[in-house]
């Protein structure tokens, strides 16, 4: 966003000078400069309520002054699976405290649903899982407010920030459900819900600034306006490296772990962390900024009426990149979303598309397995300008992979375990953006942009008193390799149990010799394997778990933590059901009691999942 006389206190000349300067700065320089300016005016009294200034109803940024308005207590709740919603909630909590608000921050599962009737202002930040489900720690509150015992919430105020991924059908569904239900129960919206796509930073800033603005109002009102957004979310959250400031890691090793004849290609990638000055923990992820396949970019440019070198606008702020560069690194081109189709209706001016896109069901079916090239071929744009592409395309999301190495064991390196995604659809071969880039186009000696994405909900004990049960078929085994490396580094033996599964023993036994060595050396106490395609009947990890039902229950009763990592759609659901069966069988519980038991384990962080 650019400054001008209507959205800032500067005259035209000053605004132009500042815009020129800002456009030449890196995000780090901007953060430094803002700190410098704050420090330099520290002694000066603030002339206005300076940090929330209103112009034409626009909340411009945060207030550092105590408001004279009596502040109502705020309850800030988050529902988070991978830590994004939690990170935002912690950041917002800190900001609200700095602004002198009385605010109580809690994970939803640490909040007693019955206390809902006692809250005054309720702020919710929540993600959505796979098929529109609430994250694990949001389930109880979600069910409570949707159940018969939900209280009337007249007189309460609320606002919801929903995190999600536009490529999923039930985009931000959990946030939407909370928003609808709280309103239905009588609470008043303090500020409208914002639905964020994977690139959530700017929208989250907007929500936070407007919520603060609304909280500062004497009476509640819904601020609809845009705010000046900063890179605050990212720079405050990611202390070291981030999407805006990745670390360029040299590739040391890139090998296929599967043997000849396998149906799979699983890459083991080792990256150097020289002068990294950051750390990671077992359970954390490595975020990679990927590039689109050059062949796909070339094919797309051939179908567009613009030259590869044309400079095009890539965002609202007016930043520019060449068409080539923007399609390679900045925009997502290999997936279609409902919102993309709706924008294409406006921008393409193609009557056929306009007519078809009136039906939601048509959009839902059409976007499945198709990409931008398909859309342009099927519905050639009549009117699109190069500078409008940014209105059509979303930013290329970073990809996150569970780290498969331990910082304690090997601080100068980080390893990941990545399954190459390749499939055919609508008559063309397709590939996963990042997994196939890593499999086919990244050689040792090259560098790739990365940063660490911490996962507060997938944490491992650093002692050998707590029994640890690890369930991870396929690439889901990655964090357990990291954990056993860590236990070796810390000399922690025993009390670990791994369930691993893949298709074939001979070709797909990922890290086979490492597990065997850890088993022989006592770092891994128990090890069960399930090769699904070596026998007539499929054998999966949950079949092994059932065989060990009694011992598994003993471990659980002795305080074990259960970890599940890997496929969300089928495996994680089946493993969950198997745990219920085991608890029913071994502890003579009813199905509901076994569910409650698992829910309690989740609350106590003794049942943790990283599923995708
Ligand atoms: P998979 O989970 O696909 O396969 C590992 C083993 O699990 C196989 O033996 C498979 O058997 C078995 N399996 C299949 N269904 C079940 C089930 N219901 N319960 C238990 N085991 C089952 O391993 P991958 O590492 O290939 O993929 C893991 C998941 O991650 C997949 O869902 C994949 O789509 C997803 N994913 C992977 C990415 C990556 O790393 N590139 C990126 C994004 C998502 P069989 O095949 O014989 O049925």
Describe the model:
By secondary structure, this protein is an alpha/beta fold. 36% of the residues lie in helices and 19% in strands. The strands form six sheets. Strands 3, 4, 5, 6, 7 and 8 form a six-stranded parallel sheet that branches. Strands 14-11-18-9-10-15 form a six-stranded antiparallel sheet, with helices on one face. Helix 19 packs parallel to helix 21. Residues 38-61, 63-68 and 218-231 have low confidence and may be disordered. It binds NADPH dihydro-nicotinamide-adenine-dinucleotide phosphate. The site of NADPH dihydro-nicotinamide-adenine-dinucleotide phosphate (NDP) has 25 residues, from strand 15, strand 20, helix 19 and helix 21. NADPH dihydro-nicotinamide-adenine-dinucleotide phosphate binds at residues 264, 418-419, 421, 432, 435, 473-476, 501-503, 532-533, 538, 540-542, 566-567, 570-571, 574, 612. Its cofactor is FAD; FMN. Keywords: Amino-acid biosynthesis, Cysteine biosynthesis, Electron transport, FAD, Flavoprotein, FMN, NADP, Oxidoreductase, Transport.
Topology:
Elements: H1 12-24, H2 27-40, E1 54-55, E2 58-59, E3 74-79, H3 84-98, E4 103-107, E5 121-126, H4 139-145, E6 157-163, H5 173-184, E7 188-189, E8 194-196, H6 201-216, H7 232-237, E9 247-256, E10 266-272, E11 285-288, H8 294-303, E12 311-313, E13 320-322, H9 323-330, H10 338-348, H11 351-356, H12 360-367, H13 372-378, H14 389-392, E14 399-402, E15 413-419, E16 422-425, E17 428-431, H15 433-440, E18 447-453, E19 468-471, H16 478-489, E20 496-502, H17 505-508, H18 512-521, E21 526-531, H19 541-547, H20 549-557, E22 561-566, H21 568-587, H22 591-603, E23 607-611
Helix pairs in contact: 8-9, 8-13, 19-21, 20-21, 21-22
The structure holds NADPH dihydro-nicotinamide-adenine-dinucleotide phosphate.
Residues 264, 418-419, 421, 432, 435, 473-476, 501-503, 532-533, 538, 540-542, 566-567, 570-571, 574, 612 line the site of NADPH dihydro-nicotinamide-adenine-dinucleotide phosphate.
């Amino acid at each position: 966003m650019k400054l001008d006389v209507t959205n800032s206190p500067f005259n035209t000349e000053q605004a132009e000078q500042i815009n020129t300067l800002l456009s030449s700065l890196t995000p780090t320089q901007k953060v430094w400069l803002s700190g410098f300016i704050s420090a330099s005016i520290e002694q000066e009294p603030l002339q206005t309520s300076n940090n929330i200034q209103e112009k034409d109803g626009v909340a411009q940024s945060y207030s550092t002054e105590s408001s004279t308005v009596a502040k109502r207590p705020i309850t800030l709740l988050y529902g988070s699976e991978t830590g994004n919603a939690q990170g935002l909630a912690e950041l917002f909590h800190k900001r609200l405290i700095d602004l002198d608000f009385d605010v109580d921050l809690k994970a939803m599962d640490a909040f007693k649903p019955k206390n809902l009737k006692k809250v005054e202002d309720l702020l919710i930040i929540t993600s959505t899982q796979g098929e529109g489900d609430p994250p694990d720690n949001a389930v109880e509150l979600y069910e409570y407010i949707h159940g018969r015992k939900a209280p009337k919430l007249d007189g309460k105020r609320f606002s919801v920030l929903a995190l999600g991924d536009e490529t999923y059908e039930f985009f931000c569904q959990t946030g939407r459900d909370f928003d609808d239900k709280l309103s239905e129960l009588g609470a008043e919206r303090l500020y409208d819900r914002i639905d964020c796509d994977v690139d959530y930073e700017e929208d989250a800033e907007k929500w936070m600034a407007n919520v603060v603005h609304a909280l500062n109002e004497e009476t509640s009102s819904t601020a609809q306006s845009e705010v000046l957004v900063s890179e605050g979310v990212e720079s405050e959250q990611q202390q070291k490296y981030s999407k805006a400031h990745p670390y360029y890691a040299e590739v040391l090793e890139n090998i296929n772990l599967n043997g000849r004849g396998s149906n799979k290609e699983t890459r083991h990638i080792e990256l150097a962390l020289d002068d990294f000055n950051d750390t990671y923990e077992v359970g954390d992820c490595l975020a990679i900024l990927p590039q689109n396949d050059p062949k796909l970019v070339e094919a797309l440019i051939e179908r567009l009426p613009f030259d590869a070198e044309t400079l095009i606008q890539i965002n609202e702020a007016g930043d520019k990149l060449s068409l080539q560069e923007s399609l390679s690194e900045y925009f997502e081109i290999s997936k279609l979303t409902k919102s993309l189709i709706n924008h294409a209706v406006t921008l393409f001016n193609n009557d056929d598309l306009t007519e078809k896109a009136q039906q939601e069901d048509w959009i839902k079916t059409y976007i499945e397995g198709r990409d931008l090239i398909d859309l342009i071929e099927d519905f050639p744009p009549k009117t699109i300008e190069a500078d409008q592409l940014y209105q059509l395309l979303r930013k290329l999301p970073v990809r996150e992979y569970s780290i498969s190495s331990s910082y304690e064991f090997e601080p100068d390196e980080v390893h990941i375990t990545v399954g190459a995604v390749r499939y055919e659809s609508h008559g063309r071969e397709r590939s996963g953006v990042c997994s196939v880039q890593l499999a086919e186009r990244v050689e040792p000696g090259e560098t790739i942009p990365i940063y660490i994405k911490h996962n507060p909900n997938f944490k491992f004990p650093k002692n050998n008193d707590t029994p640890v049960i690890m369930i991870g078929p396929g690439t889901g085994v990655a964090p357990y390799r990291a954990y056993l490396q860590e236990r070796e580094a810390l000399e922690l033996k025993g009390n670990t149990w791994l369930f691993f599964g893949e298709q074939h023993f001979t070709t797909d036994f990922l890290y086979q010799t490492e597990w065997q060595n850890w088993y022989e050396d006592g770092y891994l106490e128990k090890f069960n394997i399930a090769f699904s395609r070596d026998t007539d009947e499929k054998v999966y990890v949950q079949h092994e778990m059932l065989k060990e039902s009694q011992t598994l229950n003993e471990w659980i009763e002795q305080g074990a933590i259960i970890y599940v990592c890997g496929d969300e759609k089928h495996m994680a659901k089946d493993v969950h059901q198997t745990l219920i069966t085991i608890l029913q069988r071994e502890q003579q519980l009813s199905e509901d009691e076994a569910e409650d038991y698992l829910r309690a384990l989740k609350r106590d962080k003794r049942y943790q999942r990283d599923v995708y």
